[in-house]
Amino acid sequence: MDIDYASIEPLITQRMVKGRQVHVTFARPQGGPSVSTSASLRKDNTAGQRIKDSVKRSFMYEARNMLMRALGGLFGGGVAGRVARQATHEVQRSVAAKLEYSEADVQRAIVEAFKRVQGKFARDPQTKTWGAAGKVAQSQSAYDKLLASHPIAEGWDRMVLARVLVEVARADGSMQAGEQQLLGQILPGTDLRELAAKPPLSAAELQGTSELAREAIALLAFSLALADEQLSAAETQRLNAIAGGLGLSASRADALRKLAAAQVLERVFERVWADGKRSPEETTALQAVAQACGISPDELARQEVDFRKQHGKF
User: Fold this and answer.
1) Which terminus of the chain is more solvent-facing, meaning fewer CB atoms within 10 Å of its CB: N or C?
2) Sequence spans of domains, the chain
3) Closest C-alpha among 37, 220, 53, 180 to residue 115
4) Which of 48-57, 91-100, 183-192, 246-255 has the highest mean pLDDT?
5) What is the C-alpha to C-alpha distance for residues 264 and 268, in angstroms, rounded to an integer?
6) Nearest C-alpha neighbor of 221 from the set 61, 69, 67, 37
7) In Å, what is the CA distance from 221 to each residue of 183, 192, 215?
8) Can you tell me the distance from the alpha carbon of 268 to that of 266, in angstroms, rounded to the nearest whole number?
9) Angle at which helices 280-292 and 250-272 pack, to 10 degrees?
10) Cα–Cα dist 115/141, whole Å
């Protein structure tokens, strides 16, 4: 689904540019709390840049967007949300004013910010307007439906999820700077070093979670692993151990991994097919990313065919 700035502009109640970030708050038309989020600003130097950078960078970007959207507000909102709520409905220049971001740059960033919280909204297929999620239920993906039907609401479940995310991020021995930044946004106010110093979650701790939340915890863990474009052997081993500790079968764990990958690929296909075709370079890059993330050529081909059928990309 293509999202343009004009379609979401009526939802914006506050926005602010701070450094290389744009912070924005969206109102939900049918009521409920406002939704605050943020995205990075990028200058548009070439026409091609407006559509996409590389497929590999798109995959990582969409994986992180998906995770931020799924976890938005779960741990109480982060710095971005607090800043946006305090802002007025205007673009304020900061120390980074010398970067001279254009209004077009800001609008593109706001669209990307909206995608992070898109799961809280639904688009009416008739009027093309946005409303609160649940008003247009058919627009939800299988990924969003699973998270909606398996809420992580209990304090113990959230604690376990936080530790699971940290364990997956440092499965290779240490957390990279990008992973630390992402987890800092997901877990505001959390001492990541303290969590990283804890021993791996025990089977008893994992089994102490609510049965309803277990598949969502595993799905979000797979989503985080995909966000660095490389599903390593160490990450796979830890993910399988976590899924087993949560009482999930190997086949169900694999289905959740595929669901997380399919959700990201859907977004990447939107970028790759934005101009109605896929170049040889995009094909090579897409295959490389799929292989790195444990997606077989058959899975990739099937998901792309499904996307093309749904979106008329013949």
Assistant:
1) C
2) 5-53+77-136, 141-314
3) 37
4) 246-255
5) 6
6) 67
7) 12, 16, 10
8) 6
9) 160
10) 14
For the purposes of burial, counting CB atoms within 10 Å of the CB of 254, is it exposed (0-12), middle (13-18) or buried (19 or more)? Answer: middle
What's the pLDDT tens digit per position in 73-111?
A: 677 543 333 323 333 233 233 333 334 678 888 889 999
Tokens describing residue 46: 């070439």
Distance, CA of 86 to CA of 138 (rounded, Å):
34
The domain defined by 141-314 folds into TerB-like (1.10.3680)
DSSP 76-111: S--HHHHHHHHS-BS----GGGGG---HHHHHHHHH
CA-CA-CA-CA torsion sign (130, 136, 140, 146): positive
| Residue-wise pLDDT tens digits, 251-309 | 999 999 989 888 888 877 877 786 778 888 888 878 877 887 778 899 899 989 988 88
Q: CB under 8 Å to 52, separation ≥6 — which residues?
A: 58, 271, 272, 274
**Cβ partners under 8 Å of residue 272, min gap 6:** 52, 55, 58, 278, 282, 286
